[in-house]
User: Fold Nonsense-mediated mRNA decay factor SMG5 from Agelaius phoeniceus.
Amino acid sequence: AAEEARRNRLMRDMAQLRLQLEVSQLEGSLQQPKAQSAMSPYLVPDTQALCQHLALVKQLATSGRFIIIIPRTVIDGLDFLKKENAGARDSIRYLEAEFKKGNRYIRCQKDVGKSFERHKLKRQDLDAWNLYKILDSCKQLTVSQGSGEDDTTGMVTIITGFQLEDPSSFSVPMQ
Assistant:
């Protein structure tokens, strides 16, 4: 029951983050400077978000309002997809250029210290395994930044390319 509650909370939080992103995109298009205050200063796009919505990620990076953190697992995911996915290739080129320039708004997160190894999950459900790795990265970030419950400096927003309208279509670990 606790595991199911945790999963439900995770799905609810992800849906809420997606809504926040959509709202801030709409508000951003209206040029309201206060728009992004609902979102944390740290944005962590997953592999799908970079492949499908690179233009949006670039826009967020150039806004100067966020620091975009790219976990190692996301780079590995792009590397894995680059042969058949043009979006992955474009993302890799963009990230390499930004890292080389030393863009302070886009950072590669080194491998998180000791994360929970889920080798069985990696074989059975790569999407869920990658999500867990991203969550490990986010947890490390929030622990290092935040000072309390209502302190948004320790918040991290995950940007996903997954369609979240129908959570039941995901595997159980992914939910």
About this structure: Residues 2-29 form the longest helix (28 residues). The CA atoms of residues 15 and 164 lie 7 Å apart.
